[in-house]
Amino acid sequence: MAKILAVTNQKGGVGKTTTAVNLSACLAILGQRVLMIDLDPQGNATTGCGVVKRVALPTVYQILIGRSTFSEARIRTDFGFDILPANRELAGAEVELIEMDAREYRLRDALSLARDEYDFILMDCPPALNMLTVNGLVAAESVMIPMQCEYYALEGLTDLVATLKKVRANLNSRLEIEGLLRTLFDPRSTLTQQVSGELVDHFGSKVYRTIIPRNVRLAEAPSYGKPVIAFDRASKGAQAYMALAQEMLDRRAGLVRPGVAQGAEA
Ligand code: ATP
Ligand code: MG
Predict the structure, then answer these.
(1) How far is the CA of 17 from the centre of ligand 2 (A)?
(2) What domains sit in the chain, N to C, each tagged with a CATH number?
(3) What is the pLDDT of residue 98?
(4) Is 210 in the pocket of ligand 1 (CB under 6 A)?
(5) Residue 44 Cα to ligand 2 middle (Å)
(6) For 251, which DSSP code?
(7) Which residues make Cβ contacts (< 8 Å) with residue 181, sequence separation at least 6?
(8) For residues 102 and 110, is the Cβ–Cβ distance under 8 A?
(9) Which domain of life, per UniProt (predicted)?
(10) Angle 44-221-60 (CA atoms, 0-180°, nearest 5)?
């Protein structure tokens, strides 16, 4: 039965898409059956795995409004995992869903049959707390929160935690925080170190031990339509996402307690 995770943070540019794409690829290399769902009309996760965002393609949009099934929209990437793609059309779902029954549950219901086919389902959420994100949070068991360790990060986190509480109270009682991931990490910055320390103080074992460094290869890979592991396997970015994938598997197997290590191994 798949573990369903929403990669989410309403703050933009914190590494959600980079994490969803690269973690999917690394989990696949470690033998996991992975489905990645692009829930962002920007479609960055879709292009980031080499899938062309043609408008004719059935996407998550058609699934949400009930015009396609999960198996019609699913695509196999070249990197050993499947994807439900998105493109700009998905922006329209926001409005169309308002009229629909059980609008918060549509993704969850569409995925009910897919759960047995995968070990992990990762959803790349848009940088907003909108109906698309709500569909992601209702379909998920837990959330992975990528965050940049900078001044406003903790404030944004307070808003996100409040939203998660609301979703838990009203729509999905099992929703948990899976983990907080420090991304775009620059160990030379004192502020980064300070915020990272505060994060660990507040959230303890929920903070992944693995830290994702700022690494130019991670930023370059999407323009080649590849996860970094298929682009530059030896890069620090590729190694970090492999370590994160392994940490997740270890956590799942109960091999390690989620860690509280501080500082960057970057
Ligand atoms: P949005 O909120 O717009 O969806 P996001 O949270 O999905 O953004 P990304 O698109 O993953 O964030 O990353 C934002 C930008 O930073 C991208 O150009 C990406 O290539 C780059 N980036 C992400 N992580 C790293 C990293 N660890 N090192 C260097 N560049 C990175
Ligand atoms: Mg994104």
Answers:
(1) 4
(2) 3-252 (3.40.50.300)
(3) 87
(4) no
(5) 6
(6) H
(7) 15, 19, 144, 145, 146, 147, 208, 210, 212, 244
(8) no
(9) Bacteria
(10) 25
pLDDT tens digit sequence for 14-68: 999 999 999 999 999 999 999 999 999 999 999 999 998 876 689 999 999 999 9
List C-alpha distances in Å: 24 to 45, 152, 167, 198, 241: 11, 28, 25, 29, 9
Whole-angstrom Cα distance, residue 22 to residue 229?
7
d(CA 108, CA 132): 12
CA distance 247 to 117: 22
Phi, psi of 256, deg, nearest 5 = -130, 150
Q: Which two tokens stand for residue 209?
A: 């031990």
Residue 257, pLDDT > 60, answer: no
Which residues are within 8 A (CB) of 69 and not within 5 positions of it... i.e. 6 or more apart? 63, 110
Backbone angles phi, psi at 66, to 5 degrees: 80, 20
